Amino acid sequence: MRGISAHQRPTSPGNVGAASAATCPSVVVGSAAPSPGSRPRRDDERDAGRGGPKYVYDFDEGDKDLKDLKDLLGGKGANLAEMTRLDLPVPPGFTITTEACKAYLTAGEEPVALADEVSAHLRALEARMGRRLGQPDNPLLVSVRSGAKFSMPGMMETILNVGLNDQSVSGLAGQADDGGSRSTRTAG
Questions:
Q1: What's 6-175's CATH class?
Q2: Residue-range domain boundaries for the chain
C-alpha cells in the first residue's frame, strides 16, 4: 500500500472494525490489451504451500459465488473474474484483495508476502502477454484501479498506462507509424 496518502486510507492502522472491513478497497491491475491466444486456467493451489493468506488473485481464478468474490475482490475485481469465467473477452490482470488492505490496517504496514505475490503475478502477466512493463519496443501497459465491495467515489485515483516511460513511448509511437500518411493528408 505504499504511495497511498493519509487522506486516501480508509481508516487508521489498528482500527479495523466492521465498517472498515466493508469499505476496504481491492486494487485491480489489468492489461490494456487482449491476451495473445487463449486464457489458460491457473492452479488455485499455487500459493497454498506458502502458508498464510493469499492476497493476489488472477482474474481467471474466479470460480466462487459472486457474493463471496465481492467481499474478497471488491466490485470491479469480482466482476472481472466473473466475466473471465464466462469466457468474455477480458484483458488479463489480477486483483490485490481486500484482505491485504485489512492486514495493512491491522498491522500498520504492508503484509510481508504482498510484494512477492504482486511481483509473481506481474511476471506471469508479462509472460502471458509477451511484453514487459517499461519494455522499450513493445511495452506492457496496465491500469490500476481501486474497487471496494461498495462504490466509494474519490477513494483512490485510477492510474492508466502504467509502463510508459521516455523509451517505451518512442517504441509505442513506432508501432503506430504509418509512414507519415496521417501528417500529409489534406482536406478536400
A1: alpha beta
A2: 6-175
